[in-house]
Give the backbone structure.
Amino acid sequence: MKIKDQVLLLLEEHRGEFFSGQEVAERLAVTRASVWKAVKALQKEGYAIEAVNNKGYTLEKAPDVLSAAFIEQKLQEKGIRLSVQAEKMVDSTNNVLKQYGAGGEKRDMVLLAEEQSAGRGRRGRSFYSPEGTGLYLSLLLHPNVGPEEGTLLTTLTAVAAAEAVEEIVGEPVQIKWVNDVWLRGKKISGILTEGSASMEEGKLEYVVVGIGINLYEPKGGFPEEIREVAGAVFTSHITRENLRNRLSVAFLTNFMKYYSSFPERAYLEAYRERCFVIGKRVRIMQPGSAPSEIGGKPDADPVYAKVLGIDESCHLHVQYEDGRTEFLSSGEISIKMG
């Protein structure tokens, strides 16, 4: 860990306390000069570190920027072992970790970014992820399961994200089948799960689970094509202190809680409780029958059904208007309330 990160963790864990440069140097087994350089570097990044003669340094306020050291430390305190990387910008956190997985990376790890230049969603869609508005992260995992069961990680991720956002804002968070997290009637998050399977062994070699969460509405609003449905965790543009790190820790803690007992599917009941399409009449859109789940023209011959429930494999149990029932997988349809 860099000296800068060690200094930050020390000051973060002892908010309101002062440490002299000598005390910090002794605790970290480094020189006073290196402590001074670390403090200057942190101040340049936006950390409000006060320096007082005869008292030392104290952290008054932390900016809302990602800190891999902070996140990894908080996870370790909870007994969670994950390799954590944080970047200002990447093309796509999923793309980067897929390259790691294809290259033989065996560690379970998480990559976080404050901006993506080529964020991706399901079915080839882009995911709007500009600077300063969201949290974007992906996990590289190696579950000992087959491809079909691996797709259930999407369900797990949605529950972990909903719980984490609820912890932060104290408001009820819902899920639209199969992978959208909703707050105040708007979509605030999307999930993309990808993987590589061994044909010989019939199980996943690795899987990458990516999620993007809209924290703040972009200046000027969301692009027109998603404006009707897209929302953000916070409606004001006031930056919350250390929000991305706190939300990341909450999400990863919830995720790993469920992932540690993944075969038992402990997350499924929580998913059902939050899924707001159950009991509702929906319009079912087969792939290719409509330009997009968001916007675009409706189907020429729309098919309606009532959602009866969700089974153990997260298939949607629906009943059509002619009385027929069917279990639908996430790969077969998208749905639109109608």
